[in-house]
UniProtKB/TrEMBL annotation:
It comes from Rhodoblastus sphagnicola. This is peptidoglycan glycosyltransferase. GO terms for cellular component: outer membrane-bounded periplasmic space. It is an enzyme of class 2 (transferase). Its EC number is 2.4.99.28. It comes from the Bacteria. Pathway: Cell wall biogenesis; peptidoglycan biosynthesis.
């Protein structure tokens, strides 16, 4: 007879763990069973105390066979016609569990099979029992007591297709077996002896009776006190299986992409994931039967995705819950507006206190209107963004250039898809483009990281290579964060708590809210998976309350973004340099302007790498800036911050504080401007 077949120990379920090793979700093993590996050190010690007291008191001392217990069982069988107590050791049971998977034989004794009416009696087979004894001796010779226990922990049956202690603890109690109550541990000891006859969801009275017998035997063995035994018996048995099924839409994708893997280590936080899945489900149940929601939570410091809710209810067919709507291309509504303003700020076209014109305007055949159909006249850029006015945003985008904005967003990793057969137009700033929620969250996180978008990390097994993807300059990133922190909150929010922006797509198909503080960025989308319109589906009214609830579940102080140095601050437009006080309606602003000699930066050229000896310290560095054309005086800015007062000369000098990328802009007296990006070394 050869060595025992251990192949069953190699066929475990595929499963995903969170950042702390907590189970998110498991998939059935190839044989259709839920089987998860469990180490003895990961199990509550009281389980082993009860297991040995009930099954094998002399487990620590015997060599696989307890001849005293076996002899007693044989004598009882011979004198009474059936066994009054079991003779199998835990080692013999481990051997039987291994053997059942290779030869499908049935053992002679099963503990409690003859002594309990709730357990069907197994047919006797003395050759099978002898084989079990032989295998037990083999196991004892090859493995330590701890390893033998782990074989039992991995293969013991617990009802249905649940095998192993860890799978059973998760299925019946919804938690890992590290911390079990006495009643829970006793039930897990009792179930393997008659797993189908004692299933708590099918036969709760039998499950309770079997558990109580374990408790009584432990009490008789003096390993349980009377009060602890009383409390354990008072615990109600579980009435249904409750296997974790967190991040189901995402784990489906990981398993499909890597079918060869059995374990996935993800960056998520299981507690937060569960909390936000519950939040999404509860909110959508109130909103309507076909609505679903998606949420993304990012750790701004390292780009780790702490939660990824793809849908409101994975099993809800009406909501298409199995679809990952966080990765679906949907209209972003007004959530792209902050990037229009950030680009204008970084290129010196405007400032938060610049006055914009919120009045009727037409751009070719397109005539944008505000969401409330009201015009507000002259407003600051700050107010225009806080109240998401469409006319000022369109005006700014017309000056920035939609193609330029699109290129900047794409270079920072934001995947945007234009409608079929359409050109890049101003409508992209108001939602006329397809975007994914997870990409929007990533782009918003750049406002917390001095303008650099993080590489998102969902899998800890294959983290991405860090890339420097600058979306905007540090000064303009802070300016956007400062503006959005003043946006009026929804009814369940407090003013100034987080910086956030909402969005509503055309036809009320998508409601979005994206917010951030110094530590985290959260993005929320609500809508129908089939893209059908939903009257009243407005970002501020539907998505923003979910966003604020999500931040409340995160906890923390919601610290604001730190202000970088050299940011031009002003109380109103009068405090700004003249070219920044107004964005003149219809006035040319860029090098494509219609002046005979438009303003243009002559030095440094676009994309230049300039060695200023910064490795020897910033005191060594001094960069010459030169422009040509335009109307004096000229205002120079670097990374959105003015470096000098308005000057009639075409030249200026600037001393950087370190190596890196810089955005240099110049504005003339007419408001025309030009910008270049350079790398300083």
């Amino acid at each position: 007879m050869g060595p025992p077949d251990l192949s069953a120990l190699q066929t475990s379920s595929t499963f995903a763990l969170d950042r702390n090793g907590v189970l998110l979700r498991a998939f059935a093993a190839p044989d259709g069973r839920w089987r998860l590996p469990a180490k003895a050190d990961e199990v509550d010690p009281k389980f082993f105390v009860l297991l040995k007291a009930y099954e094998d008191k002399r487990f620590a001392s015997h060599s696989g066979v307890d001849f005293l217990a076996l002899g007693r069982a044989l004598w009882q069988y011979a004198t009474h016609g059936h066994a009054l107590s079991g003779g199998s050791t835990l080692t013999m049971q481990a051997a039987r569990l291994l053997e059942q998977r290779s030869e499908k034989w049935v053992p002679v004794f099963r503990e409690s099979a003859a002594t309990n009416k709730d357990s069907p009696r197994a047919p006797h087979s003395f050759p099978a029992k002898l084989k079990q004894i032989y295998r037990a001796v083999q196991l004892e010779a090859r493995f330590s007591k701890k390893e033998i226990l782990e074989i039992y922990l991995a293969l013991a049956p617990y009802g249905g297709n649940v095998e192993g202690l860890r799978a059973a603890s998760l299925a019946w109690f919804g938690k890992e077996p590290r911390r079990l109550s006495t009643g829970e541990a006793a039930l897990l000891v009792a179930l393997p002896q008659a797993p189908e006859a004692r299933r708590p969801d099918h036969f709760p009275a039998r499950a309770r009776a079997a558990r109580d017998r374990v408790i009584d035997r432990a009490r008789a063995a003096h390993v349980l006190g009377a009060e602890e035994a009383r409390r354990a018996k008072a615990e109600p048995p579980p009435l249904r299986q409750n296997f974790p099924n967190l991040a189901a839409q995402v784990t489906d994708q990981f398993v499909k992409a890597h079918p060869e893997r059995r374990v996935f280590h993800l960056a998520y936080d299981a507690r937060l994931q569960q909390s936000l899945e519950d939040l999404a489900k509860r909110k959508c149940e109130r909103l309507g039967p076909k609505l679903t929601a998606a949420l993304i939570v990012i750790d701004n410091a390292n780009g780790h995705v702490l939660a990824h809710v793809g849908g409101a209810d994975y099993f809800a067919k009406a909501r298409a819950g199995s679809l990952d709507m966080a990765r679906a291309l949907r209209s972003p509504g007004s959530t792209l507006k902050p990037f229009i303003y950030a680009t204008a700020f970084s290129e010196g076209l405007a400032h938060p206190e610049t006055l914009l014109d919120d009045s009727p305007a037409r751009y070719g055949l397109w005539r944008p209107v505000n969401f409330d159909d009201v015009f507000h006249g002259a407003v600051t850029a700050r107010k225009a963004l806080q109240f998401s006015l469409n006319l000022p945003a369109a005006q700014l985008l017309n000056e920035v250039g939609p193609a330029r904005l699109l290129a900047r967003l794409r270079s920072a990793g934001l995947e945007l898809k234009l409608p079929k057969d359409s050109d890049v137009g101003l409508a992209i700033g108001l939602g006329g483009v397809g975007a994914r929620l997870i990409d929007l969250a990533r782009a918003y996180a750049a406002f917390t990281r001095e303008g650099v978008a993080p590489d998102l990390v969902e899998s800890l097994d294959d983290p991405p290579r860090p890339e420097n993807r600058r979306l905007t300059e540090p000064a303009s990133a802070w300016q956007i964060a400062d503006i959005l922190r003043g946006a009026p909150p929804p009814d369940n929010g407090s003013a100034g708590r987080i910086a956030f922006k909402t969005g509503t797509s055309y036809g009320y198909r998508d409601a979005l809210a994206i917010g951030f503080d110094r530590a985290h960025t959260i993005a929320v989308w609500v809508g129908r998976a089939d893209n059908a319109p939903v009257p009243g589906l407005i970002g501020r009214q539907v998505a923003a309350p979910i966003l604020f609830d999500a931040f409340a579940r995160l906890g923390g102080a919601n610290e604001p973004i730190a202000k970088p140095e050299n940011v031009l601050e002003a109380r109103n437009s009068a405090d700004l340099p003249p070219p920044l006080r107004h964005l003149r309606h219809g006035a040319p602003k860029t090098i494509a302007a219609t002046y005979a000699h438009p303003i243009k930066i002559f030095y440094p050229p676009e994309g230049a790498r300039i060695d200023l000896g910064l490795s020897h310290g910033p005191d060594k560095a001094d960069l010459s800036l030169k422009a040509q054309g335009g109307a004096p005086p000229f205002t120079w800015t670097v990374n959105g911050a003015p470096i000098d007062a308005a000057n009639p000369r075409h030249e200026a000098r600037w001393k950087p504080d370190g190596a890196g990328f810089a955005r240099v802009s110049v504005i003339d007296a007419n408001g025309a401007s030009d910008s270049v990006s350079v790398r300083l070394e």
